[in-house]
Design a protein that fits this description.
alpha/beta; Nitrilase/N-carbamoyl-D-aminoacid amidohydrolase; 2 domains; 7-stranded mixed beta sheet; 21 helices; 13 strands; 51% helix
């Protein structure tokens, strides 16, 4: 316990603190943007947590703590979403330069602002913990309790239409696949937990070192090393064991088609060219031995319900190949328009089960709060390249193939771990991801989106076949290893050996239970400290 006689570490000036938080926000977000920088994810939060937890200003109002939290998370988000700037000037949507600039700025800065508005409250809780002297009474427990808060607030980014969990810390750790194997146990939020536990304990160790308490500083260093190395060791052992077991599984050849046709180039008189291109690539993949072929999102961007040419295309494909093909298109039903995928079998029969995209892209496929947005920010309401707004599906629509059960995710679906969890629990033995990332061409968004599919593969020990309109298309193993990929702006297909796998990982069984557990333990610690403080006053 720290005595009252000990002097608090001097707090840097407000200006220096501002730059410190901004810098750490950038460095924390950089690995998510470019996973090759994954070590920064472990180190960047340390100065911020040291400042928040162990520096004790004489007066620190809650509003100031919230402001610091807002700044840190906002800069983090801007770093993650900076790729939105590559969309300018949005000429494929017919925007003028002024409108395009407004939309890009709102996307690049506005989404992080929405997230930081909520996440900034985390620093308020830390400030309250500091006020009740939790860090003085129980420094180790307080460090852990602080780390427990971060997965909870990261989970909040998945909620409501405004929730976009693009910037998960686990995405930034896919640069070292050993580290993320533990998502098969507790999910991606576990990676966030151990990163901030490492950072908080490192901050505590630095404090002890500054105060000359080398014994406790050494204890912190040992715990930090144990947190990092135990997770790394588990990953190495798990990857080796899983890869070895996969060698004995029955395999088929799967291909993902990449037509390299940007979304805006598919419409009007280009329909015939699009169909012929996908027909040719599909036949080439089949000739290459593919038994399952996956098309990208809305490969044929027309309504299947009213386009007889698609029927002729599908019958022609079935006559010339023995492969099963996951075909993708728009589809009308009961007055609603859906972004759909169906399985075309080798006999030319389209599956009755139609997977309909469950999580639509706000402003891209529909406009939330349409009247308000039309009034306040008209360019946002005009972002969608689709004349009629889409409706979301509500079913996993698992498809029976000749070799196993296929689960489908379309584009935005793949960044929401709960959707893949539902599919696997409903029986999916192989995951197909169809996406259109042509909007994000030549930006870090391509790699970030692909990394989410790597996490989905590891979480459930499933192969993932990912087909993207213009890239990145990839074949991903259950340990997240990419066996074949096709980069941005290339035409062709990727091929790999995959298996339909049964069984469940621990994460498949327990889901995101770690999130409410973290919230419960944090609350329990705060209540315990308050009770203890109350008893001490009596």
């Amino acid at each position: 316990m720290i005595t009252k006689k000990e002097k608090a570490i001097k707090l840097p000036s407000a200006l220096l603190r501002f730059f410190l938080y901004a810098l750490c926000g950038i460095l924390s977000g950089l690995p998510v943007a470019v996973p090759a920088f994954w070590p920064l994810g472990w180190l960047a939060p340390i100065p911020v947590l040291f400042s928040e937890i162990w520096m004790r200003p004489k007066k620190d109002r809650l509003i100031f703590a919230y402001g610091r939290g807002f700044l840190y998370f906002w800069v983090f988000g801007v770093t993650v979403f900076f790729w939105f700037t590559s969309l300018y000037p949005l000429d494929f949507l017919g925007f003028d330069k002024a409108s395009a600039a407004i939309v890009v700025i709102l996307a690049c800065c506005g989404i992080p602002m929405l997230q930081a508005t909520v996440s900034g409250l985390l620093f308020v809780i830390i400030c309250i913990m500091r006020r009740i002297r939790a860090f003085d009474r129980h420094p180790f427990l307080s460090a852990v309790a602080t780390a427990l808060l971060f997965p909870v607030f990261e989970y909040f980014h998945t909620l409501t239409w405004a929730g976009v969990p693009w910037g998960k810390l686990a995405v930034g750790q896919t640069g070292c696949l050993y580290i993320v194997q533990s998502v098969s146990l507790f999910g991606s939020y576990f990676i966030t937990l151990i990163i901030y536990a490492f950072s908080a304990l490192a901050a505590l160790g630095i404090k002890y070192l500054i105060k000359g308490d080398r014994h406790r500083a050494a204890i912190c260093a040992v715990i930090c090393a144990a947190v990092f190395l135990s997770n790394l060791l588990f990953g190495a052992v798990y990857m080796t064991a899983t890869d070895t077991s996969l060698e004995n599984e029955d395999k088929i050849t799967a291909s993902a088609i990449q037509g390299n046709i940007r979304f805006e180039d598919k419409w009007g008189d280009k329909e015939w060219h699009t169909m012929e291109l996908y027909k040719r690539l599909t036949l080439e993949a089949s000739d290459n031995g593919a038994q399952l072929i996956v098309w990208p999102e809305t490969a044929i961007p027309y309504d299947y319900s009213f386009n007889p040419r698609m029927e002729r295309l599908f019958k022609d494909l079935s006559a010339k190949t023995d492969a099963e093909i996951l075909v993708t298109f728009f589809e009308s039903e009961n007055g609603c328009l859906y972004n759909s995928a169906r399985l075309l079998d080798s006999k030319g029969v389209i599956s009755e089960a139609a997977y309909k995209k469950r999580h639509l892209v706000p402003f891209g496929e529909y406009t939330p709060l349409e009247e308000l947005i039309n009034t306040l920010v008209p360019p946002l309401a005009e972002m969608s390249a689709i004349a009629d707004p889409l409706s979301p599906g509500n079913s996993t629509a698992i498809m029976e193939t000749q070799n196993g059960r296929l689960g489908t995710l379309i584009c935005f679906d793949s960044i929401y771990e709960a959707l893949c969890l539902e599919s696997v629990r409903d029986g999916a033995e192989l995951i197909a991801v169809s996406t259109n990332d042509s909007w994000f061409s030549q930006s870090t968004a391509l790699g970030q989106h692909n990394a989410h599919s790597q996490l989905r593969a590891i979480e459930h020990r499933r192969y993932v076949v990912r087909s993207a309109n213009t890239g990145i298309s990839s074949i991903i193993t259950p340990t997240g290893h990419i066996t074949d990929s096709l980069g941005d702006g290339l035409e062709g297909f990727v091929t790999g050996q995959v298996s339909y796998l049964g069984g469940r990982t621990l994460y498949t069984s327990i889901g995101n239970i770690i999130v409410p557990l973290c919230a419960l333990l944090s609350c329990a610690f705060i209540i315990f400290t308050l009770t203890e403080k109350g008893k001490a006053k009596k």
